[in-house]
Amino acid sequence: MQIENYVWAEKYRPKKLDEVINQKHIIEKLKFFVKEKNIPHMLFAGPAGCGKTTCALAIAEELYGKTVKFNVMETNASDERGIDTVRVKIKEFARTKPMGNIPFKLIILDEADALTFDAQSALRRTMEQFSSICRFILICNYSSKIIEPIQSRTVIFRFKTLSEEDIKNYILRIVKSENLKIDESGISAIIKLSEGDMRKVANLLQAASIEKNNITADVVYSIASQAKPDDVKDMLNLVFEGKFNEAREKLKFIMNHQGVSGQDIIKEIHRQIIEMKIPERKKIEIIQKIGEYEFRISEGANEIIQLEALLAQLLVLGE
């Protein structure tokens, strides 16, 4: 199969507000602002990959058309998060007059929750000072990390997590366009691994299509280097049956032969425990232990030792 020179996450990103998936409660309001050619300062908050940046870029394209390059500045606050970025780069752009028939410029500030407190304080003043000739769209995952003075100056739109049906339709659209084949297990695997992030969906599909034209769950998990749910489930069943050594061997197989990291295994253990039919009290105790060992691994402890210790704890709790 010929590898095309593009990233599917960008190729299949909606270019217009009408094309944005599952955010109708927001899109209608945004379309009204665009129609009136007058938008307020806005704050887009919500989980990753649900369409926040896409909506901001679509607004820019629909407002400015051919002059979008001259009137829109897109910047990522996670790269430039200090006060100098606001005082120099953003302020210099905001203070100049726009080109064309739209009376204001637009600054799209992605990952705004990464800005320092001082930078946000400076940004608040800039938003206030140049509001007549510049509008801001701030994008973040957690609106609570944006200072109150900025929140009070913006219209806040909260984006929803995408449903499984929306993700499935998006997958089928790409599969049809790229002449691929995918079975239900492959679709389910992508939905599970993407966690509602459409960028992950497109990237997983593109990576899987390079290996095989017929995409199955095994192909998806292999490409993603993620633990297969059935393998982790089997490991947990061995633990609860008191077969500790067999569970250890299964763990080593997942880590060594499938190349899955300890962090990813512990996440899948958490998912499996949530779905297992065990007493609620026991489930709470197990999740507390999972949280403890996940923290140890994140702090740099040896993954295999910590996971074996977790299996030992699960065996004790399961007795």
Question: How many distinct domains?
Answer: 3
Question: Taking Cα atoms only, what radius of gyration do you get, to the nearest Å?
Answer: 24 Å
Annotated CATH topology of the largest domain: Rossmann fold
How would you characterize the largest beta sheet? Answer: 5 strands, parallel
Share in β-strands: 5-15%
Quaternary status of these chains? single chain
Give the overall shape: elongated
H-E order: HHEHHEHEHEHEHEHHEHHHHHH
Please identify, by name, the CATH architecture of the largest domain.
Answer: 3-Layer(aba) Sandwich
- Number of E-type strands: 7
Instruction: Summarize the amount of helix as a percent range.
Output: 55-70%
Mean pLDDT: 87
- The count of helical stretches stands at 16
How far do the termini sit from each other?
Answer: 52 Å
CATH superfamily of the largest domain: P-loop containing nucleotide triphosphate hydrolases
Structural class assignment: alpha/beta
**Uncertain spans, ≥5 residues at pLDDT below 50?**
none
CATH class category label of the largest domain: Alpha Beta
The side-by-side strand order for the widest beta sheet comes to: 2-3-4-1-5
